[in-house]
Amino acid sequence: MTGFDVGARLRELRMDQGLSQRKLAEAADVPHGQISMVETNKSSPSVATLRKILGGLGISMSEFFEPEAAPSNAPFFTPDEFKDLTSRIYSDHGEPVGQMALKQVGNAREHGLQIMHETYEPGADTGEEMLCHPASEGGIVIAGELEVIVGDNARILKAGDAYLFNSREPHRFRNVSDRVAVVVSACTPPYL
Q1: Average pLDDT of the chain to the nearest whole number
Q2: First-to-last C-alpha distance (Å) of the chain
Q3: pLDDT at 69
């Protein structure tokens, strides 16, 4: 499988919408130069930054990475049928420490509910730039430990612990342990 060209895909979508780099930067509330750096693959955006840029285009992460995915009406899914929404963001070189995988069950947009199987390697972090989006989300830690920060509240959740909050509150997920953390989460409306 060849690598996914984030820059070329972003440029294609921007051009399809008839936007200049400057107009997209304004719509996404990011520096103008950042669009150019991403499109020329001179910079690899963080998950939060890519979400902001895609928000300026009005598309989701799954639509960005799986533009030709055929919708499925099947009610059951095996793990190999989950849609990987983040693995292509990371570079193919370097150590896997700090990486995470977010895998979606089925067609979230069709059902208005995004169910995810999330894996956070030791050191993985959604970033210092807190996430914030119009939705509600919750999850249960299935294995390991995960620090969840919501506004001024922070807690290290262990297997069996759960969270539920309004996603408009700035939030962040970090694995500060030395073990892999696994979470099953839901978000409505879908975010990625």
Answers
A1: 85
A2: 23
A3: 52
